[in-house]
Amino acid sequence: MDKIAMAIAAHPDDIEFMMAGTLVLLKKAGYEIHYMNLSSGNCGSTETDALTTARVRLLEAQNSARILGAVFHPPICDDFEIFYEVETLKELTGIIRKVKPSIVLTHSPIDYMEDHMNACRLAVTAAFVRGVPNFKASFPAVSNYNCAIYHALPHGLLDPLGQKIIPGIFIDTGSVHRIKREALDAHKSQKNWLEDSQKMDSYIAAMEDFSTKVGAMSNAFVHAEGWRRRTHFGFSESEFDPLKCLGEVYSPCKVF
């Protein structure tokens, strides 16, 4: 089986906030890595119209993928229009069948906004039906090869009701933190938008804060990303857990 990992997120810059360090480490471990935001990011500005914003954010996302060393996939939706519906599911299914990732990195099933949660649902189902021939998509079904699904932490490290989420896997991203920061910095249009819409004084500082807080949770690392592995049913053999190769921590108290 080819070593291929794919990050699937809602908006341009979501991968960079919570997933990019792990994605780069997978590349260093010999994986071909893929980068896809489902949405164009067209609503991510109070200064330019939707069409202009989408064009700017497309270029930023392409530049970020280049920095990470990832294969770029263009968006298939717009902001606040990522719905769990059949045409979008078919389009994403076709992409997953063509790429054949053995690792899918995506959002937390519970997150602060619907776009994130719907992107997660679409990614999970598209991976689930990769080998179902009667579910028709733009690319034919492939074999039911092992595919592991990993969910990132929610934005702010909390669920929508303010409960802290503790990951089952911590990945030490210290060695690639500079690349992660550079990739996020490629999304320069988001500085004013995030300050205005989400009261982030600095989107770079917000990412740094998430990274060091997850590192502190691990009791082992300065910078880290946290993951929860989806149960294997419908996706892989029970023991298939490829993030083990990256030197992670499986509990806040014990290092493996």
- State the strand order across the main sheet: 3-2-1-4-5-7-6
Query: Which class do the helix and strand fractions yield?
Result: alpha/beta
What amount of the residues lies in strands?
A: 5-15%
Distance between the termini: 26 Å
Helix proportion: 25-40%
Largest sheet entry: 7 strands, mixed
Q: What string, H for helix and E for strand, traces the elements in order?
A: EHHEHEHEHEEHHHE
Give the averaged pLDDT, no decimals: 92
Shape: globular
The total count of strands amounts to 7
Radius of gyration: 17 Å
Number of helices: 8
Low-pLDDT parts are: 250-256
Please, could you describe this protein's structure?
The protein has 256 residues and is of the alpha/beta class. It has a seven-stranded mixed sheet, sandwiched between helices. Helix 3 packs antiparallel against helix 6 and helix 4 crosses helix 5. It starts with a strand and ends in a 27-residue tail after the last strand.
Defining key terms:
256 residues; alpha/beta; seven-stranded mixed β-sheet; 8 helices; 37% helix
